Amino acid sequence: MLITRLQSGIDFAIQLDESMDIANCPTLLIYVRYVWQDDFIEDLLCCLSLNSLITGLDLFTELEKCIVGQYKLNWKNCKGISSDGAANMTGKHSRVIEKLLEVTHNKALWNHCFIHQEALVSKGIPPGLMDVLKNAVKIVNFIKGSSLNSRLLEIFCSEIGVNHTHLLFHTEVCWLSQGKVLSRVYELRNEIYIFLIEKQSHLANILEDDLWVTKLAYLSDIFGILNELHFKVPGKNNDIFQYLECILGFQKTLLLWQARLKSNRPSYYMFPTLLQHIEENVINEDCLKEIKSEILMHLTSLSQTFHHYFPEEKFESIKENIWMKDPFVFQTPESIIELNLVPEEENELLQLSSSFTLRNYYKTLSLSAFWIKIKDEFPLLSRKSILLLLPFTTTCLCELGFSILTRLKTKEIGSTVHLTCVWPYPHVFLTGMNL
């Protein structure tokens, strides 16, 4: 049914990503979004098992065999391509995205996964804070790397009645994992210290450093905030307006925080764990000055990196089409003229913004469903809006697919299944799945 619909010539957008299992066997997942009836529909298009030594050109060739050769689809109907920014997709030696854009005659819009960009932003950490992160990871690995140590800490935490009894692993492929890892280490810092003393581990010395613990409190806050930035726009059919609004708001928030710290009366209200730690402990002025300096350096670095991955040009293109977000704001001819639409589009927008019936539809429907509903009455504006809203903004569906493959390729489900896939997204959970 899916292939039949796509073969009818309707526009569609794809998201694709590749992952490796423990046997180094790459798997390529492709999901599709298309217009059907009254809204967008998202579905799995194909799952390709590839050779372990496959190159970027081979990857594109296999994709071409499936999409064009087997499914008989036309690339000219592909209006959007979304992937992460990994080298196997966008690198100078693979150029898979470049080839895809070429076969769509450069009429498709490529979106670099917003979540991946947020993860890349979070990697820029000043040396002093990076040392805190590395030492926290060492502590976690010392305990979690031994099943005995992990069980003993769990028993100890259970006996004294703390809220959590387990530490969490930090891993590079879990892009947004730092927040939860550091938060748990800070929460259990006293229990971990006692445990490390009992084990006669030199790592206990790290937790005796008040400055280190204070920096740990800040890191648990800031990475938790970066995690929340993603979760502000959860769910299906997220459009590019929602994501860019969140990013733009967070960029302004970073500037506000920097200004607050630079003021004559600096405040740490935006970092609740750090603020509570400062209030509950005696921290000398020199330590506070060093912490403040490193926080300012980190926030400045975050601001600069956000501007790198989300430049002004990206926001300008959205501002030019802001009428798509709320067409009923533009009630007067003067406001419509400023939008640089063609005369036919201006006339459509004026008629649309004057309709009270359509205003009710706008309030009750999703943005995509609204523009699809009025496509016959206002074809020019609807077509333009759908083409902007159709491309995926993230590769979440691919990562959800990889998490399902992880469950399928574990020994606990069946003796014939024996592989485990990489799970790159920490925010994707799979529960209650049985075969």
From TrEMBL:
Highest taxon of the lineage: Eukaryota
InterPro entries to which the protein is assigned, alphabetical: RNaseH-like_sf
Protein's name according to its UniProt entry: Family with sequence similarity 200 member A
